[in-house]
Design goal:
With 111 residues, this protein is an alpha+beta fold. The chain is built from two helices and four strands, in the order H-H-E-E-E-E.
């Protein structure tokens, strides 16, 4: 089998990239004098916000065994981010993060 030239590999990668990294688009309202959203463009950004906020509330407790999950809302306007211990009910933190503004609502502990 012949090797693929580097330039052709780059072109193929650029063509495939949008499909591989496509995110659900959300139409955010435009506010005069403000940068246009969405500010939380993907689940990775929502996870970063979750970790930053959760660290402030956990008082140095070790949550290394917990997994973080991020789910997009049905209307694509927000993410639900939470952490949990596999096989254990409750004990994690959850929050809703607005994609357009980054605003956190419904910050709560799961029981």
């Amino acid at each position: 089998m012949k090797p693929v030239p580097a330039a052709l590999s780059l072109v193929l990668a650029l063509i495939a990239a949008p499909a591989a990294f496509a995110q659900t688009e959300v139409a955010c309202p435009k506010t005069p004098g403000m940068f246009p959203g969405p500010f939380v463009r993907d689940p990775e950004a929502a996870q970063g916000i979750f970790v930053a906020v959760a660290d402030q509330f956990q008082g140095g407790e070790d949550f290394s065994g917990y997994q973080i999950k991020v789910e997009e809302s049905a209307d694509h306007r927000s993410y639900l981010a939470y952490h949990y211990m596999p096989g254990v009910r409750g004990g994690g933190m959850a929050m809703t993060i607005d994609r357009c503004t980054g605003r956190i609502t419904k910050l709560r502990y799961q029981r």
